[in-house]
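Example record

The entry below shows one chain as it appears in the dataset: sequence first, then structure tokens.
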Amino acid sequence: MLTDWSVSFIIFTVFVKRYLDLQLLEALLEAITEQAPSKREHQKEARRNAIIDAGFQEFSLQGFTATKLDDVAVRAGIGKGTIYLYFDNKESLFEEVVRKNLFPARDEALSHATEFQGTATELLTIHFQRMYEILHKDEMPQLVALIMGEASRFPKIADFFFKEIVRTNQELVQGIIQKGIESGEFRESAIKDFTQILIAPAMISALWRLQFDTYSPLDIDAYASTHLEFVLRGLSK
């Protein structure tokens, strides 16, 4: 059964054959083919995403050291050899797990901070709220625990995570504080140089809920609100 698109394409082809030369037709068809993603490309991308998601699951459950690419392949529903067509080793797969799960939020935070027209206090409040949302989303606490626990044994992972996530967040927070100092909202403070003091409680909250929530449940909304109040009081004049 011919679709409207098929009929239009046939008419177009007949027109070109009749009024234009064959070389031009071939060039046009080649250009159309190159622009349209093939079914094979879609399948390849879908399989790659399935591997990344399966990798996230395995890393979260087993830890980086114990995770095997063969187990990731089984979870992704592909042949054990197929995974090596996409990732050479666990390190490269882990980097893609971080890219897929953390880079969009990182880029959104940077874009929002650049375009934001309000006060530094408002921007810092929004940033901290989003930071808590991300850290407590789905299996993110497991990913945080994995990084904190394994990074010292795998320098490449530590280097990648620090450069792409930690340092970016530090610089963003420093920029917001500097904006507040220049606007008169915040006082000059060493906190600007030691953003670890500001960020660490959020990281600890994710680890706490993962390890100790059964024994001492954490009201994350109240915790985050108290943390933000503590930060703003420390910065305000």
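Notes for this example: The mean pLDDT is 85. The radius of gyration is 25 Å.
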